[in-house]
Records
---
Amino acid sequence: MQPAGATASADLARDPASLRDALVAREPRAAADPALVRVVHAPGRVNLIGEHTDYNLGFVLPVAIDLGISVALVPTDDGRAELTLAETGETGSFDATDPGPRRGTWLDYVAGMAWALGSAGIAPRGFRGLLASDLPQGAGLSSSAAIEVVSAWALTGGDRPPLDAMDLVHVVQRSENGYIGLNNGIMDQFASIFGEPGRALLLDCRSLDHRSIPLPLGDVALVACHSGSTHRLEASAYNERRAQCEAAVAAIASVEPSVRSLRDVDPAMLERHRDRLDPVAWRRARHVVDEDERVLDAIAAFEAGDLETVGRLFYASQASLRDLYEVSSPELDALVEIAAGIPGVIGARLTGAGFGGCTINLVRRDAVGALRDAVLRDYPGRTGLTPRVFPVEASAGAGRLA
Ligand code: GLA
């Protein structure tokens, strides 16, 4: 197929009828019976606050966003999953019932989902599909979860896989942990599946209790700033943080046997046992314990309509991710510093795993232009990189569009 390019792919991602027509134009099975074509979509996310807390069984507060991945597909009974990327024209395929080992390409996210569905007792179906995306990759906006989640729908004929929604979150996580090899938590998959327009999603990653929180944004916008450095979410750096948290838990649990995760540790307990922890493990734990409190404080502030307090919590989270968890980068720090100097910016912090990718900013709508101008003017000189600034809206989770 002729590559459509990034802009046309982004347009197709937002236009289910055109994406269906594009599949019908290139796929004989879809042309033979266009009524069989389905269009499914899964969004990316920004996390408002609660970073690196999910795998420590704490709290997260993501929102699904109005950028994501769409797939037009025709289900087949031949067991072969075949997907073409609208942007590049590249096609990949595999046997859905026997996806084989990882290949080291984007197709792994689809194959991993087939593998995880199969291990959950759900036989994946074949399909021929066309994928379009307006979600930047490697930007810390969960493009991995979005392709996994949309693949789960595609591999079950275009319908929601027959699982309880939270069980599905865990199956998607399993594809990432067990097939891709990133030992991540459940926040991204949860947000992509549970998203609600205009609302953030509070998840207690220990009890799995969750509720959506109306965002009283009024004249305030959520604005993402992309650093232009793709986050190298190297499994190694991420998995290392996780291991350091586990080391902190082990050290505390040796004297406080009821402690199973950092969720069981409060600031006073952590200080009591500071001498038992090596300094790195202490810094990691300190971030996580404080960040959990910041999530709860942010919920209270959102519910009180007190966005100034939410903004202060954003800045405190960023400082902690920079100094204690050490997952920020000079580029992300520069974006936050530039934003902090603009009147009307209420708060700014990195979102997602860090190491690159995006910041999320709470910005008065009449200051969005000033933020964009300042970032486009000052950031390239400080970093040598080209940033992008774009508002995002809290949006619905994955589902069938047509
Ligand atoms: C990535 C992971 C999530 C979470 C965040 C950090 O997005 O996929 O599970 O750990 O990093 O909060």
---
Amino acid sequence: MSTSRSPLVVRGIIRAPGDKSISHRALIFAAMASGPSRIRDILASADVHATAAALRAMGADIPALSDDFIVHGHGVAALHSPESALDCGNSGTTTRLVAGLVAGLPGRVARFEGDASLSRRPMRRIAAPLTGMGARIDFESADGHDGLPMRVHGMPLSAITVVNTHASAQVKGALLLAGLASGSGVTVQEPQRSRDHTERMLLARGVHLEMTDDGVVLPAAQRLNPVDVVVPSDPSSAAFFAALAALADDGVLRLENVCLNPTRTGAFDVLRRMGMRLDVENERTIGGESIGTVVAYPASLQGTAIGGAEIPRCIDELPMLACVAARSAGETRITEAGELRVKESDRIRAVVENLRRLGVDAEELADGMRITGSQAGLSGHVVTHGDHRLAMAFGILAAIPGNHITIDDPGCVAVSYPTFWRDLAQATGSATHPTAGAIINMSEPTPLVIAIDGPAASGKSSTAQWVAQRLSVHHVDSGAFYRAITLLALASGVPPEQWAPEALLAEAHRITWRLTERSVLPLVDGQVHDDAMRDAPVTRQVSRVAQMAPVRQWVNEQVRSAGAATDVVVDGRDIGTAVFPDAALKVFLIADPWERARRRLIQRLGRRPNDAEIAEETEALVARDALDAAQSAPARDAITIDTTTVTQEEQVERIVALAKATRDRLRGQ
Ligand code: S3P
């Protein structure tokens, strides 16, 4: 390929996070069994948190999700009705699987709720067969459509044979769970084989089911044993990096520990058919699943036809394959993929609309799409509709030099791959650049992370905000993330003295972030809570939370992923040392404690403070400095600015000038 743009070189090892389908099921089966199940390497993403929370609400003993934990199951009989509605967030798998479980537990009732995207998704596909077995399901939305909110009443169920018109592992899983919970036999037939993790995991747990050519037969009265599980990496997540390698000009990516279950590897087959070299090494079987390292190389790609039995094997990867098709020679046709219309967004419409916005020749088909690829540079703004797979698919295109692509909601990757932007930065070698900010907006050839640090009341937050505005980049206030966690902690009703980092972090998945015009804004349960976050109760407790090392780690991860998503000015404690040690420009603001106290009081009181007030505040600040000493050292390469005698305007001008010089220097590299 001959282009004048700089080449995309990929390198390194990507270990994508745990498989989402297996993670949901590992939690559910552990809660249903009697005895301890150890779960390692679970995907701790928003969707899986939703399943954990739903099971906890039904009395299951599920600890905070971590890399290694034990669930002590007490059998299905111990599961009770949740006291309040189960919030399934964005997760169709949580809704459908847990609904199947509840349906098979007589006397239990649960109301299922979700976000706007989930509430639109069709639930009749589980409601009809579950009702056929004897459960009662009421749709409770104002317009009466067959989605959430939905109330499931568990009943004694009878055996059923379901012939499904389309392949769906969620529907199959819901029915198998209802059968297991109630002790009734279930047979499911499908036109094509959907992913079979439920079957494999149940077999590993001592359940006598039969996998047939066209489905599964679960006999009545089965017992489920507790089993330890190590969750392999999600092939649907790893596939984004296979695509990145395919589209690169040079290098190689090793994707480790990938689940290679044949019902999941359709995207790898399609990429090979398009001309890509993908090798598999170190293949082995763990917990009934085949696992291996996928080695992915750059290629010259050709369009292809994707349809039929291949569709369920790559259903979640189709947005990514469509983006790859946009860079492949000739035409790609995706057909028999109508299911895409009822995923987290209408993925046929959303993918085609976004491709067209970028200048790609793409067309919607009733059950798929047609794309004609080219090597022309792509530019434009991608609207994800909060759909994680769209953000990541277009994120891959955005990483190609010469493309100028911005993405409206990069934070939505938290649904399935919270560290996606960081991994993308690593794979594209942005780690050798000072920052990872190139990922979303390649129009800046060498992007910046500007880290502004300093002691309490040094004015770093307002300065950072102002600098970001002057440079037209995003401001990330890491303190806002601590405030968001504090808000959740206060809402939990637990007295602050009893707050434990594990308990706080168990709720942290409710915090996401969004890019607004000039800032990175933390959201709680998808909502902006600016006022409550700035209120006195939060202000009083936030430093307690900010002193907890695991919480700091979590906040740093959020801030890093924002910094990987866009050019940023970041302020906060240890930003230049721990969070962005490679930031292009680090500024450390200092000021005389008296002056800091004076400024803080003016801000707080809205008037000039008297000397006694300043003295008192100075004392408090000096004490706080001593407390913070461990996190407050400037980075070795930070530029210290003493702001005692300069106005904020002068200070901002100075940092802007430094930032511009840094940017010029990097561009000249
Ligand atoms: C899943 C099944 C698939 C897939 C989803 C996860 C599962 O959905 O798209 O991301 O874990 O069972 P369908 O079963 O609705 O096709």
